[in-house]
From TrEMBL:
It comes from the Bacteria. Signal peptide: none annotated. It comes from Arenibacterium halophilum. This is SDR family oxidoreductase. Gene3D superfamilies: NAD(P)-binding Rossmann-like Domain. It holds the Pfam family adh_short_C2. The lineage of its organism: Bacteria, Pseudomonadati, Pseudomonadota, Alphaproteobacteria, Rhodobacterales.
């Protein structure tokens, strides 16, 4: 666990909490987490970034500092391990003295038919995305209550639209919503909201497009176009489409919004 080279500050003299708001972002080394970190940095948050890849986190920390973050700290951790979320929260509190926003974004569920997926794959999908979210909320809760802060949990449109090839991710995403709504109803709770991304261009979507291309004997471009047409969307989303929603939900403009679920999918979800 370390501190971003780009941001040498820690708690203020006398052990006082930092004067600017602090956001923890999980899965911040790339993809949506990186975009969320940059967006919150440009909104004036100090950022506490966590994922496994220490070098990638350092690079994101430097970019956050350039984007305006008053402090950018990194906490390399395998968040599927039960003790890690609390360890990260403790370390953030030691270094900054406050937590104002928590974005639970880390996730990596295996796609596939439930008849072929193993118990281990199911358990690891839940361990990283669902259990780490609960553990982060539990550890950060008193600090978020104190700051009247905000939690944003990143679920996914599979929460609402079950698919036979998404039998781990779908249930994990549904569980994220159920937990978030329940947590938001605790007396004195910070605001807790959920964002369900659709098909956003990150490494995760690239892997899907490449698998589709291989399965159907298509070029990457042709596979992407065929997938897009099958999904009935005009285009794939960009990480900034999700980070803008997260930034809004963390801001005071969203002060009356809690226990809510926001779909950002370019119209992919067929139901109402
Ligand atoms: N992209 C989409 O279209 C889409 C759609 C719906 C929902 N989502 C959800 O959005 C979230 C982010 O997706 P993404 O597309 O940005 O995925 P991504 O590009 O694959 O990034 C996943 C992030 O999670 C981190 N991570 C993976 N395993 C980890 C572990 N064991 N411990 C700590 N961190 C770990 C990765 O960092 P390290 O490898 O450095 O650990 C990385 O920062 C996920 O929860 C995903 O389910 C995405």
């Amino acid at each position: 666990m370390g501190q971003g080279r780009s941001a040498p500050q820690t708690r203020q003299p006398g052990g006082r909490a930092m004067s600017h708001p602090i956001a923890i972002i999980t899965g911040a080394s790339r993809g949506l987490g990186r975009a969320i970190a940059l967006d919150l940095a440009s909104a004036g948050y100090g950022v506490a970034l966590t994922a496994r890849d220490a070098a990638a986190l350092e690079a994101v920390a430097q970019d956050c500092t350039k984007a305006g973050a008053p402090v950018a700290l990194t906490y390399p951790a395998d968040l599927s391990q039960p003790g890690e979320p609390a360890r990260v929260v403790d370390e953030v509190m030691k270094q900054t003295g406050r937590i104002d926003a928590l974005v639970n974004n880390a996730g990596d569920t295996q796609r596939g038919d439930f008849l072929t997926l193993t118990d281990e794959q199911h358990l690891s999908g839940f361990a990283l995305k669902y259990h780490a979210t609960v553990r982060f909320c539990r550890a950060a809760w008193p600090h978020l209550e104190a700051s009247k802060g905000a939690v944003v949990n990143i679920s996914g449109i599979g929460a609402h639209t079950p698919e036979p090839e998404f039998t781990i991710g779908g249930p994990v995403n549904s569980a994220m919503i159920n937990f978030s709504k329940a947590a938001s109803k605790r007396p004195g709770a910070p605001r807790v909201n959920v964002v369900c991304p659709g098909h956003i261009e990150t490494d995760r979507l690239s892997r899907r497009i490449e698998a589709y291309a291989e399965k159907h004997g298509l070029s990457r471009e042709a596979a992407a176009e065929e997938m897009r047409a099958e999904l009935g969307i005009a285009q794939f989303g960009q990480p900034g489409d999700i980070s803008a929603m997260v930034r809004y939900l963390c801001s005071d403009q969203a002060r009356y919004i809690t226990g809510a679920v926001f779909t950002v999918d370019g119209g992919a979800t067929p139901g109402i």
